[in-house]
Recover the amino acids of this structure.
């Protein structure tokens, strides 16, 4: 987080000095007054300057959008983005002529880009934001595919009477599998292994 400490004869003057050095406006910063200062006798004797710490506020949505736009451009697949927020969840939809390049096989490129955007946004903040990156409604189509897979493999586990292992998946995809089978009292699901090879195991009860 970009910040600096500034002084002035008054708090207002110290803040203004900091804003000029940071080249920003007051609505874009957090101001912490360290010392309000003190006027001396006749404005001379015993005078203490006001001291403030001014930090530029991070805009997680703007940071995420900027990161995605820059990476997509460098990959030769420029995009447009549209964002929505819900609490600390940031949903970003990408559109572009070469969007398939950014989705990748089974969404692997999309997942990697989402992971890197999340790292970039949370790099210098006390709050944690979750990035959900989508393109051409891929997430919804992938959700349907995973739910169908979950039911199909649950039937297989019951048919052969043994546990069935799924391929490694990111955490939010594993949640889809767990949720799809949570009402099926004939099987149980567990996650096994360590990232990036963490996977789900479906076994008969």
């Amino acid at each position: 987080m970009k910040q600096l400490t500034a002084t002035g004869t008054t708090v207002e003057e110290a803040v203004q000095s900091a804003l000029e050095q940071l080249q920003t406006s007051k609505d874009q910063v957090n101001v912490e007054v360290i010392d309000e200062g003190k006027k001396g006798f006749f404005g001379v004797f015993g005078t203490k300057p006001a001291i403030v710490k001014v930090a530029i506020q991070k805009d997680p949505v703007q940071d995420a959008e900027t990161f995605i736009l820059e990476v997509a451009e460098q990959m030769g697949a420029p995009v447009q983005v549209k964002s929505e927020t819900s609490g600390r969840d940031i949903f970003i939809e990408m559109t572009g002529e070469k969007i398939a390049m950014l989705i990748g096989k089974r969404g692997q490129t999309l997942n990697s880009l989402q992971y890197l955007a999340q790292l970039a946004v949370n790099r210098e903040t006390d709050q944690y934001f979750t990035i959900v990156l989508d393109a051409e409604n891929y997430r919804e189509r992938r959700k349907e595919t995973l739910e169908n897979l979950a039911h199909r493999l649950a039937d297989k586990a019951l048919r052969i009477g043994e546990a069935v292992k799924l391929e490694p998946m990111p955490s939010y995809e594993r949640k889809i599998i767990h949720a799809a089978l949570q009402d099926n009292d004939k099987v149980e699901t567990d996650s096994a292994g360590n990232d990036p090879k963490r996977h789900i195991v479906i076994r008969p009860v």
The mean pLDDT is 89. The longest strand covers residues 29-35. The chain is about 40% helix and 25% strand.
